[in-house]
Design brief:
The chain is α+β, with helices and mostly antiparallel strands. The chain is built from four helices and three strands. The protein has one domain. The protein has a three-stranded antiparallel β-sheet with strand order 1-2-3, covered by helices on one side.
Length: 89
Amino acid sequence: MTRADTLAERLEYLEGGLAAVRCARCATYVRARKVSPQQTSVQWTTRAARECAVLATAAAGRPTALVPTCPSLRDSIERAVREGRLEVS
């Protein structure tokens, strides 16, 4: 396996299956992936973490990766699944 193969696999693992999802409450975008009905991965951008008042308040200066997600965003992700804009892989 070459270094390029390893990097390509890593990129696929980190970004494969991610789709842009817009929060219905604050209109910010995150990238999300559903691997199963129970498991959701969300990548918050720095901008999204700033624009979501729920996440910013809950984080209170802590890394946002340690904060449970915004309920409105969770609802928006589930709506995207129901509407076929985000597939469960």
